Amino acid sequence: MFAGRVGLLVVGVIGLVFAAADPVVADEDDDIDTTVTFLVSSGTSTTFAILSGPLSVSAPEPVDLGTAGPSSSITSPLGTVTVTDMRALLAPTWTVTVSSTGGGMTGETIAATGVTYWSGLDTASSGAGAVFVPGQPAASDQVAISTSRTAFSLSSGLGNNSVSWNPTLSVTIPEAAVSGECTATVTHSAA
């Protein structure tokens, strides 16, 4: 009689193991909840450091805006400008400014007042709670960059962040301009 009970007990345990090993399958419209248990204990205190990096800006170099004759203008995208903020600050802010020296060739200068810029909206961005503000969101907002102007800024955020935009540059060619290739410098600075 005792041997019969052991055999029955073993059969019961094996049946339980097989029943638990069967996976739960849900239909397409059903949800499956899994209960997970874990222990939180007061263990060894640990410390760590969060490393910080630079605030940097990158811009294309060189850029060919195209060709135009006297008393006209050239308008073209400059190419992607990107700001990367790896400073890991609690409340980061920054401003990117843009300016130009104007352009020209030997014996001729196109004044920087004839070079206008508008940032447009961001083309890519990342960062927790980051609020990016374009300096000139539309063509109607374009500004001469003979003096330093705000191109883009970060007004608030948390930790690292990044934003890219593709600004448009317009150069007015004076009536007295002579034929030739002109070179100008457009400078983006982040602070």
How do the strands and helices of this protein lay out in sequence?
Elements: H1 2-21, E1 55-58, E2 72-77, E3 81-85, E4 94-105, E5 108-110, E6 115-118, E7 122-134, E8 143-144, E9 149-165, E10 168-173, E11 183-190
Antiparallel strand pairs: 1-3, 2-10, 3-9, 4-5, 4-9, 4-11, 6-8, 6-10, 7-9
Commentary on this structure:
Strands 1, 3, 4, 5, 7, 9 and 11 form a seven-stranded antiparallel sheet that branches. The chain has 191 residues and is mainly beta. It has a single domain (55-190), classed as Sandwich (Immunoglobulin-like), CATH 2.60.40. It is elongated. The protein is built from one helix and eleven strands, in the order αβββββββββββ.
First-last Cα distance = 89 Å
- The number of distinct helices, counting runs of at least 4 residues, comes to 1
The beta-strand count equals 11
Output the structural class.
mainly beta
Low-pLDDT residue intervals, each spanning 5 or more residues: 1-32
Instruction: Report the average pLDDT across residues.
Output: 81
Overall spatial form: elongated
In short:
This protein has 191 residues and is mainly beta. The protein has one domain (55-190): Sandwich (Immunoglobulin-like).
Descriptive tags:
4-stranded antiparallel beta sheet, disordered N terminus, Immunoglobulin-like, 11 strands, 1 helix, 191 residues, single chain
